[in-house]
Specification:
PH-domain like; seven-stranded antiparallel beta sheet; 4 helices; globular
C-alpha cells in the first residue's frame, strides 16, 4: 500500500478511517471457508487456561470427534460480511445466507493457527446466560484473518466513539 497525495500520512488516514461512521455502514467482505459450529457450550474462568485457549481446545476436541471439519472442501467456500450490525456468512456460489450474528451477541473473536499452518477464526457468540456457540472459519492466509480482526476492531472503535459523542 502506498501513501496518498495531499501530505496526509498513512497514520493520519488510518485515524480518519477509525473515526469515520461511513466506514462501518458499508459491508466489508472477506473470503473464507466455513468449518462448522460448536453449539451450546459453557466456559468457566480457570486458573490454568485463558478463555481463548479454552475455546481453541474446545474446537480441537470437536474436530477430533468429527463434529467439525479439519480441512475444508471447495463447497465450504463462504463470504463473510461485516458491518455495524454484525456478521453475515453466506455461501460463495449461491449467496445463500448460512448465518447472521448480531454484533451485540459477539462475545469473542479468536485468530489461531490450526497446527497445519492454516489461520482459523473462532467466532464465539452469546446464546444465553453463560452459554455460547462458536463458528469456525478457515482464512486463505494469516493476513486475511488479521484483516477481519482489524476490521472488527475498527467497527467497535467507531461505534464506541459514536456512543461517547451522543452523551
Amino acid at each position: 500500500m502506498s501513501g496518498g497525495g495531499g501530505g496526509e500520512s498513512p497514520a493520519g488516514s488510518r485515524e480518519v478511517l477509525y473515526r469515520n461512521p461511513a466506514y462501518i455502514n458499508r459491508h466489508n467482505g472477506f473470503s473464507a471457508h466455513y468449518l462448522g459450529a460448536v453449539s451450546m457450550f459453557m466456559m468457566q474462568p480457570s486458573n490454568r487456561k485463558t478463555l481463548e485457549s479454552q475455546l481453541v481446545s474446545k474446537i480441537e476436541e470437536e474436530q477430533l470427534d468429527g463434529k467439525l471439519k479439519l480441512k475444508p472442501t471447495t463447497a465450504d467456500a463462504v463470504r463473510l460480511r461485516l458491518d455495524r450490525h454484525g456478521f453475515q456468512i453466506s455461501r460463495d456460489e449461491s449467496d445463500e445466507i448460512i448465518l447472521r450474528v448480531p454484533l451485540h451477541t459477539l462475545a469473542q473473536l479468536v485468530m489461531y493457527d490450526d497446527g497445519f499452518n492454516k489461520s482459523n477464526l473462532a467466532i464465539k457468540v452469546i446464546v444465553g446466560k453463560d452459554m455460547f456457540s462458536c463458528h469456525v472459519l478457515q482464512c486463505p492466509s494469516e493476513d486475511s484473518a488479521m484483516s477481519i480482526c482489524e476490521t472488527l476492531q475498527r467497527v467497535f472503535t467507531v461505534i464506541m466513539a459514536e456512543s461517547d459523542n451522543s452523551m
